[in-house]
Amino acid sequence: MPxxxxxxxxxxxxxxxxxxxxxxxxxxxxxxxxxxxxxLPARLPIPSDLSGQRCLDIGTFDGFWAYELERRGASxxxxxxxxxxxxxxxxxxxxxxxxxxxxxRKGEGVGFDIASEALGSSVKRREMSVYDLDPADVGRFxxxxxxxxxxxxxxxxxxxxxxxxxxRGQMLSVDAVDVGLTLLHPRRxxxxxxxxxxxxxxxxxxxxxxxxxxxGGFEMVGSPTRFLMPAGPGQxxxxxxxxxxxxxxxxxxxxxSWKGDPHCAVLARPV
Length: 271
Ligand SMILES: C[S@@+](CC[C@H](N)C(=O)[O-])C[C@H]1O[C@@H](n2cnc3c(N)ncnc32)[C@H](O)[C@@H]1O
Prior knowledge:
CATH superfamily: Vaccinia Virus protein VP39
Mean pLDDT: 92
CATH class: Alpha Beta
Strand content: 15-25%
Order of helices and strands: HEEEEEHEHHEHEHEHEEHEEHHE
Oligomer: single chain
Shape: globular
Low-confidence stretches: none
Bound molecules: S-adenosylmethionine
Distance between the termini: 40 Å
Largest sheet: 8 strands, mixed
Structural class: alpha/beta
Number of domains: 1
CATH topology: Rossmann fold
Helix content: 25-40%
Number of strands: 14
Radius of gyration: 18 Å
């Protein structure tokens, strides 16, 4: 049953220092997320009716996608994540302040718990790395949502292979892409390797995102969907200065915070 004490819910939402997802928890109670994905489910190729299906959400954070799958009628939703920041696969030289900020936003998974209670959800969260997905442990799933995590993984293809081992239906891989590389090389799979000073490894172009999915043992279903992932109320707009406009990295950060983070969604099924 959803939480009915709205005052208590408001206080708990406010007490949470940061939210990753913008979630509608009750009439007038909205979490101030770093991202506001609320318009996306209607634009992405997710089956509108998941009745009777087992679904998996990977790297669930505050649970936006897991709750969306549940809303679409899934009979069971499992959501995995790693609360332990030391278990993340981030580059060792990621700035401690960025790791700390991300960890604080996640807390002890309190955001997910507050949302779960408020929504009266039955989503089961498990502390598990995507690399460790094993059908003998978690079973197989009819629909898998795998969002905004490939870029943070040292070995995205290995992760996709693990996802394939538990996917008996379709997987939607949604991840950040490099716009410049996509425009310059629409067909050639290329990725920008970072791994130094930023908490991510790879920014593929759209062709490389598709290639990663295919290398992991999937085939495409339909065409990729490109979109900008909108910033939420928890994110302050980057100030635009002449100095920043001279740096490619700073220009990208400005674009992301004002217009959204360029992403691509690839619907696929195991070969
Ligand atoms: C950028 S957030 C994306 C949140 C959400 N999936 C979405 O699409 O909105 C990445 C999430 O993946 C989790 N994560 C990091 N490494 C992971 C791993 N190896 N296995 C599973 N989840 C991981 C993080 O804790 C975080 O919740």
